[in-house]
Amino acid sequence: MHRANLAALPCSLARTLQIVGEWWTLLVLRDICFGWNRFDEIHDHIGIARNILKARLDTLVDQGMVERHRYQQHPDRYEYLPTAKAIDFVPALMALVAWGDRWTAPGGPPVLFSHGACGHDTVATVVCSACSAPLSRDDIDFRPGPGIPARGPRDARTSASCSASPASAADPSIR
Q1: 3-state secondary structure 70-119
Q2: Which domain holds residue 153?
Q3: Are residues 48 and 87 in the same domain?
Q4: How confident is the model at residue 166 (pLDDT cuts 50, 70, 90)?
Q5: Pair 118, 152 in one domain
């Protein structure tokens, strides 16, 4: 099966999926960011096949999300430490967990997170970076940004969102 190179699309979501979109990758990244750093720890914690775990770790290392450090020789053994790029991704992981807790956990969240600064349990929420109001689809509009190609196979409104919305499609200023 041929897989598309999502990194070539002018879409930040597609480019992110090129890095973390394969099965198991988000779970591997979660484990590394939360302290399971050795191959056997990750393997035992999530039950992933060793060859797949190696492939996912290689991708995360190649993409600068994880650094590989040898902690033992004869035989060589490595630990995998999150980079600043991976730590910056933790809020996205937390947002996915919050969605999963709401829509796939009828008995309630299997894990609770607490905020170290205040000690209270917390759930990730996405808020406006300017006014801190919670965001929902009805509150969001989009337009082409500085990273969109001037010309390409898709028009600006499609590339800006990776799929055109009816509201923006009718707005001639976006074309």
Answers
A1: EEECCCCEEEEEECHHHHHHHHHHHHHHHHHHHHHCCCCCCCCEECCCCC
A2: 141-174
A3: yes
A4: very low
A5: no
